[in-house]
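[SOLVED] Need 3D model of a four-part complex

Original post:
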Amino acid sequence: MSQELPTTSFALLGLLSLGDALTGYELKQRADNTLRFYWVSPAMSQVYTELTRLSRLRLIKGADTRRPGHRRTPRRYRITAKGTRTLKSWLETAPADFPVLKHPVALRLLLGHLVDPERTITMLEEYVESLAARSKDLHQVRDSLAGADAVGQPYHYPSLVADWGLDYYAAETETVQRLIERLHHE
Amino acid sequence: MSQELPTTSFALLGLLSLGDALTGYELKQRADNTLRFYWVSPAMSQVYTELTRLSRLRLIKGADTRRPGHRRTPRRYRITAKGTRTLKSWLETAPADFPVLKHPVALRLLLGHLVDPERTITMLEEYVESLAARSKDLHQVRDSLAGADAVGQPYHYPSLVADWGLDYYAAETETVQRLIERLHHE
DNA sequence: ACAGCCATGTAACTCGTTACATGATTAC
DNA sequence: GTAATCATGTAACGAGTTACATGGCTGT
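Solution:
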């Protein structure tokens, strides 16, 4: 009965386990505020595909809000008891794989011998800027959690993860800045 | 003429730009020692597929080492002048995207409300252990570069990237250890 | 009237994986 | 002779993307 879903399905199911009934659109927004920073925020079309699949498996249930004279059927999806059970069992049995990092900046640094050193430095400086932008985004998300982030409250764990992300961005920024210094002195 | 290849193709082409003519098998090993840490090390079959594609595009050239009485054709591939040009032009024109992190441990922490807190701590402790193992692997790779890692030498940039990776693992380890402490005191 | 956001979904496609199939070489 | 490693490739598939198509709702 454990149908071996991809991690992204469990991730979306997990977002639904945080409470509330969400539309696909809202779920995508929640993914943009959470999954984006340490997983991937699936494309809109993917969200709907997953919602259909999870529904078919009865892990979530879509409340139909159909109205007369309208063709479209906006639905709010909510996790089911079976969904919660399946999610818990996945968390308890599937091993947590080592993170996968796809780091285009590091990849380009590896190939530094092919480009003008100035360019490499510029690229790293731009990366520092985008780290700052990302960090700012995540800070906003983290702030929006304040008030419901105490132990036992709904956003406790999400806030821990957000803090982790902020630490990561800070450490990465420092490392890259040291790297820039090092390249300047070559 | 810029045929918009996936990043992984450029990554493999880049590994070939480090010098030497390699077989698919050897290229896979080089990927395991480099790309694995900040990109992905493609499957063996994918390496051969890429080699075929890059060959067809004349970005690399495979020297045929066919011998009589043998059906198999082991080839050593070497980057061509066109390959170097294409790679350089990619490095200079394509923007370096922000890194993508797929972090199953962070994802699970987000869903901490669904599992026994003890289990979450155990998971984080196991993650610290696997970070140590990874770090050890990368350290070995970095050590194997020593001697040819000075400015201007072939492994200068690869060693910078390796150092970056080691810094990352160290910082991540500290962050997770603080997180474990925090969870202990809840 | 129009912009902008809310909302849902299909089709075609690419990337990259696992499973499978095969064979050569080296060391014990 | 047999295990391990070197070596190459094909087939089937899954995950997730972009492009496309459609329509409702709200504010100005």
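Edit: Chain A touches chain B through 60 residues (CB under 8 Å).
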